[in-house]
What we know:
The structure holds two protein chains of two kinds. By secondary structure, chain A is mostly beta strands. Helix content of chain A is about 0%, strand content about 50%. Chain A is built from no helices and eleven strands. Chain A starts with a strand and ends with a strand. Chain B is an all-beta fold. In chain B, strand 8 and strand 9 (about 75-80) form a beta hairpin. Classes of the chains: A mainly beta, B mainly beta.
Amino acid sequence: KAGVTQTPRYLIKTRGQQVTLSCSPISGHRSVSWYQQTPGQGLQFLFEYFSETQRNKGNFPGRFSGRQFSNSRSEMNVSTLELGDSALYLCASSLGGEDYNTEAFFGQGTRLTVV
Amino acid sequence: AQKVTQAQTEISVVEKEDVTLDCVYETRDTTYYLFWYKQPPSGELVFLIRRNSFDEQNEISGRYSWNFQKSTSSFNFTITASQVVDSAVYFCALRDSNYQLIWGAGTKLIIKP
């Protein structure tokens, strides 16, 4: 079974630009969550999608958005990039549903550098 | 509010020593789940264990063991006879009815040969 695939692995963008990151979950998984990891703030929850609907959202500004497609693939978008958006962005895939006990499986992440 | 505390920022031991990573959590929910993940230098978070709030049995998997105690809101992780390959950052996380994972700050474990 293929794991969680995130593309691209590395990105360098300029302040003010926008960026789109992609995540393909494990086949059969309907929930996709996104996390930002920085040395200063650690791992922080961005949002979670289940069956194309955003089910939960973390405390990030509106510049951070996401969506999920009917095949469960997900994208997140960051507009008007700031230097502080430089981070490792991790996508997690899980079975989802009302049961929130299932483990999440993570991709290798996209390392975004804003210059 | 939910919170996970990993007080040990970094631990360094010599190979073959036993090491325990501490995790303390806070939640108001009666049903919740606790997780441990390992993050090697490659960056991918690797799932290690899940424990639900109704199951306080300790678990052992090879050299790894976990001690869950609701009375102290702790879910500690012990590696017996550590190996260099165990070097990584280890995260404890909590998931309750909000679905999202709440993470501890992580403990960097260094195993010296």
